[in-house]
Amino acid sequence: MWTTGRRSGAFLKSLHHFHHCCLKTEMRRCANGCKQWCYKLMSSSSSGRPWRLLFFGTDQFAVESLKLLTSSRNSGEGIVETLEVVTLPHDVPVKRFAEQNKLTLHSWPLNSIYGQFDVGVVVSFGCLLHQRLISKFPYGILNVHPSLLPRWRGPAPVFHTIIHGDTMTGVSIMQILPHKFDIGPILNEELHPVPEGCTADELGAALAAKGARLLIDTLRKLPEKMANKREQAVTGETFAPKIGPGMSWIVWEEQTCEQIARLYRAIGSRIPLRTVWRTKTIKLLDFVGKCHISDQRKKPLPGSVSYLKEADVLAVCCKDGWVGFRAILLKKRLSAADFYNGYLHQTSKRNTPDTTDEGHFVSRKPGTTETPKRKSSTS
Predict the structure, then answer these.
(1) Helix, strand or coil for residue 95?
(2) What's the distance, Cα to Cα, between the start and end of the chain in Å?
(3) How far apart are CA 109 and CA 47, in angstroms?
C-alpha cells in the first residue's frame, strides 16, 4: 500500500518516468480536420526502450562499447535515449572520449542518481559496485566481460587466455551482482576462436568490438534476455589476476619454447621479459620465436646463450629447445650483435672453470629476491 511521505514521492518519480519513457506525443488529425496532440503507448514500451543509460569504464577496451552506444544514441534508432559516463579522475581513454563527444561526466564515487537512469553498463571499470547503487537502476547493471564465464573471472582475462594457450574464448554479457566480481548470471554470450599466434592486444581489440555489438544486441531485447538469463556454471571457474612485472621472469629450466612465446605475446608489449646475467637484470626484446641450433657437441644447460650471426639473433636454451631475441636492455638497448661483441664474446675468451656461467642467462623465479647461482655443467 502506498503511503504519504517518501513512498509517495517515489511513486511520483515512477509516474514521471512512465510518462518520460513509455509515452510519446503524436500529432493526429481528427475526423473534423482539426489537429490535436495525443499520447500513445510506445510500441517498444514492453522492452523499456529507449534506455536512459549510465556507463562505467576506463580503458580502450571500454571505449569500443561507449563509442557504439554514442553512435546508437546519435542515430535515434530507439535503443539509447540518454547516455552519461562515470570514470576515474585520471586521464584515461574513456574520459577523453567522453570529453571529445560532449558526454556528461560523473566523478567516482557517485552522488545520488535516483530515478535518472534505467540501466547501467560496466566495461573495464575495476571498482566494486555495491547493492545500494545497483538497486537505483530498474533494469540493473550490465557488464561486458571478454571471456566465456566462469573461465577467467578477474581483471585480466585476455592476457590469461593467451598465456594459457586457450584456442576458444568469447564475450559474456552478465548482470552485476554486489560483493564479488564476475559472478552474475549470463544474459548473452558469443564465442570467438583465438587466432594462432595472436597477441593480447590483437585479441583484446577483436573482443572489444564483438563485445560492443553484443551489448547493443542485449539492450535491444533486454527484458527478453533478462527473462532467459542463466546462472554461471558451478565448475570450470578460473581466475585472471592483474598482470605485473613478477610474471615477466623466464625460468629457462621449466618453460618450453611455446610457453615463452605465449608469455611474450600476452605481456611483451607492456612488460619486457626478464632474466639475469652476471647478477644484472636483463630485459629481452624483439622475440623472434623458436630457433634451430645445430652441431651441439654436448647437451646445453637451460639459459645457455648462442649468437646466430646470420640472423643477428641471441638464441637462449630453454626446457625443450631454443628461443631467439633480436635485442636486450642492459643499461641501454643493445642489438644481439652489440651484446655479443661487447659482452658475450669477451667473456668467452676468458672462460675458466670459475667463469663458465658468464655465457648463461640465469633464472630467477617470480617472487624471489636472491639472484640464483648456476651449477657448472658436468655433461
Answers:
(1) helix
(2) 87
(3) 30
Radius of gyration of the chain, Cα coordinates, nearest whole angstrom:
28
Separation of alpha carbons 363 and 49, rounded Å? 58
Do the bridges between strand 332-335 and strand 119-123 make them parallel or antiparallel, or are there none, so unpaired? unpaired
Q: Which three cell numbers stand for residue 148?
A: 566465456
Which residue did the predictor score with more confidence, 114 or 335? 335
577467467: which residue's cell? Answer: 152
Please tell me the pTM assigned to this model.
0.82
Length in residues, the chain: 379
Instruction: Yes or no: say if 304 and 288 are a contact pair by the CB < 8 Å rule.
Output: no
- Using alpha carbons only, what angle is made at residue 82 by residues 223 and 122, rounded to the nearest 5 degrees? 65
Residue 82, C-alpha cell as written in the block:
540518454
Could you write out the three-class secondary structure of 240-279?
Answer: CCCCCHHHHECCCCCCCHHHHHHHHHHHCCCCCEEEEECC
Assigned C-alpha cell, 97: 572520449
Residue 41 has pLDDT above 90, yes or no: no
Residue type at position 353: P
Band (pLDDT 50/70/90 cuts) for residue 368 is low
User: What stretch of H or E contains 64?
Assistant: helix 60-75
Q: SS3 of 288, please? A: strand
C-alpha cell at 355: 667463469
Distance CA 307, CA 285 (A): 15
| Tens-digit pLDDT profile for residues 106-157 | 999 998 888 899 999 999 999 999 999 999 999 999 999 999 999 999 999 9
Nearest Cα neighbor of 160 from 207, 210, 213, 126 is 207
Neighbours of 170 (CB within 10 A): 21
| E-strand stretches of 108-225 | 119-123, 141-145, 168-175, 186-193
Phi-psi region of 228 (alpha: psi -120 to 50; beta: other; left: phi over 0): alpha
Q: Which residues 6+ apart lie within 8 Å of 42 measured at CB? A: 21, 22, 23, 24, 49
